[in-house]
Amino acid sequence: MLFSIRKKPLKNGLKNNNNYLPSWCVLKILEGGMNMKAVFETGGKQYYVTVGDVIYVEKLPNEVGSDITFTNILAVGDKVGTPYVEGAKVVCTVEKHGKQKKIKVFKYRPKKKYRKTQGHRQPYTKLVVKAIS
Question: Distance between CA 35 and CA 41 in Å, rounded?
Fold first, then answer.
């Protein structure tokens, strides 16, 4: 038996403070939920996710509550693509759209009495990872 709830320490390196996994964690691992990880790209950035993660990405045109399927998967589990893994996908649900905190952009030219202040709020989309395959 690979996983132990109470009696034996784990052999695969997953442990909590007393070298045992709680029962809910064992069930998730047996279902395949915790050990499936993926790296995918969207908006010019790469994201390392597992099932259930909440991530913030560049704004996407999808509506709130809809599902998005990403196919630009760089790595899934032990597989690494060249550049992408064939047939792999990450399914996410759009939770909300919003804007980040405002940043101030201040431009000036010394000795020329030129001062310009601007503000910028970057739009984002909040996603929840539903499935990795």
Answer: 20
- Domain ranges for the chain, please list them: 1-35, 36-132
Question: For the chain, first and last CA: distance in Å?
Answer: 26
- CA distances (Å), 103 to each of 20, 41, 43, 72, in order? 45, 25, 20, 31
pLDDT in tens, 61-99: 999 999 999 999 999 988 898 889 999 999 999 999 999
Q: How far out from the chain centre does Cα 8 lie? A: 33
Supply the pTM of this predicted model: 0.70
Integer Cα distance of 4 and 25 in angstroms: 10
